[in-house]
Design goal:
343 residues, 6-stranded mixed sheet, globular, 50% strand, 1 helix, mainly beta
Amino acid sequence: MTLKLRITLFVLLCVGCIVVSIGYVMMRARQPANPSAGTGTAFLIGSENGPGLPAGGAAVSTPPSLPTAPFLLFRTTTLGKTYGQLVAAPLDHLSGPVTPTGLSCERAYFSGGYGVCLTADRGVVTSYQAFIFDSSLKPRHKLPLQGIPSRTRVSPDGRLASITVFVSGDSYVPGSFSTRTEVFRTDDGSKIAELEKFTVERDGKPFRAVDFNFWGVTFANDGHHFYATLATGGQNYLIEGDLTTQHAQVLHSGVECPSLAPNGKRVAFKRPTRSGWHIYVLDLDSDREIPLAETRSVDDQVVWLDNDRILYALERYIWVMPADGSGTPSVFLADAYSPAVIR
């Protein structure tokens, strides 16, 4: 091949790449960027608009609505047009037809009439955002995320929402990730707390380190107390925090991703071991730990089905297990992830 021919082929290749790039940018520019825009537009799964964004031209005559409580809201992983979508199913008839919400989320949670959906828009550069929606499934507030979505929870009364993301660039973890956990009001989307700015106490003394990381918030029933994980120096701790005073205290060690029981008396959590994460339940009054019957590694923030049983995601299934250490795990729902129990 002559030099002149090689140069000609290289130029043609470059021109082709430029044409493709310009076409892609123009296509993306024509797509809506706000998940709350376009009233009356369907929120579809698998559309070219990306997760959680309106799909133009897909009109719906009857907007979707949530079923009457009690029901389970979860992200379905069943292959098909609803893959990755939030769907709802009555708790007493999980095997029956599900109600699609039209919302596509990486993780989600719902309580007290409000929900949070964490989304990823995987374009040339992946971006992340969250939006708060109400019981009519209408997105109300869009929240840009600083990093990769990790955990989210809504308070039992629906007034508050917590979001945890993984971020990079902190000087104390070169080449690795750290976390950011923030709390928002669901009625107006305003941020009211960033856990890294809380004052923390351990054994009655101030406790502070540059490598503090917080995640796995679970809200109490009073509307201002919460529990969460604090990690520092290679150790994980359970903290109890107060959103009113922006103060927290260390309660217990070895706790990751806590989940408070509906009656507020016990916390389920996972603990890292040499063979993976294993689930325990901590009695808050006696400070006694109970190892649960699941022997596989569970990397999830569990959800309480009621005061006696927990749910968790593992291997394309949601599993259920007694919270007192007895029994064995059993499949609760197939092809499901990120459940929320609404009663």
